[in-house]
Amino acid sequence: MNPGESFQQLQETIIGCRKCRRLVEWRERVAIEKVRRYQSEEYWGRPVPAFGEPAAALLVIGLAPGAHGANRTGRMFTGDRSGEWFYEALCRFGFANQPASSGRADGLCLRDCVVTAALRCVPPANKPLPDELDNCRIYLRLELRWLERVRVVVVLGQIAFRAFLRAWRENGGELPGGHLPIFRHAGEWELPCGIILISSYHPSQQNTQTGRLTRAMFHDIFRRARSLLPA
Fold first, then answer.
1. With 50 as the cut, is the pLDDT of residue 78 above it?
2. I need a labelling partner for 119 at 20 to 30 A (CA). Which of 46, 51, 93, 129 fits?
């Protein structure tokens, strides 16, 4: 079995996950009740798999599906405001073929990039519980094992940052300088194996509408990732 096939089989397992009762109930409730602007659409309402190329050199880790974004469309960062910023940045620096995403059939393709999350189900109020993150981290650990060509990891937000570092250490990975890094926007560390870790604020409306994260700041993250990888 090759790594690509194993990675895709893992995504099928993720889609069928029902480990966290609170998350299962919430994601399915949102998918049934919907919001007015999406009343005519059928929601995904399941755990959201990773999206992109298993042989990618760039791995991006977000927090969790949005209630009416990825929980509706079934694809990470698709169908909400965070996705507008995210795929615009990926496209600008050559990691995507188009700057917008509306659904799984919109023709969007990633280039040398794979996108995943710390949590695969939408949490109530966007606030996952510690045990839910613990339950989900095994999937991130397995993805890290199968994504053998990753050279740059971009984490979006402090929860994703912590989830990656915990999964990395649980997989036997060492920390830069033997110390746990502290999250900050545009933080950069070289892991002992040569992988570069870059941290960014998440492109949530809480950050973008307040000016905590500007488009220029966000684009700089992916400009740096591009500079570290072959064109």
1. yes
2. 93
SS3 136: helix
CA of 146: how far to CAs of 4, 129, 131, 151, in Å?
8, 27, 24, 13
Are the CB atoms for 150 and 56 separated by under 8 Å? yes
**Is the pLDDT score of 94 beyond 90?**
yes
**What is the pTM for the complete model shown?**
0.96
CATH number at residue 102: 3.40.470.10
Cα gap 6→226, rounded to integer Å? 27
- Measured CA to CA, the distance from residue 220 to residue 20 in angstroms comes to 36
Q: Is pLDDT larger for residue 1 or for residue 21?
A: 21
- Overall domain count for the chain: 1
pLDDT in tens, 117-143: 999 999 999 999 999 999 999 999 999
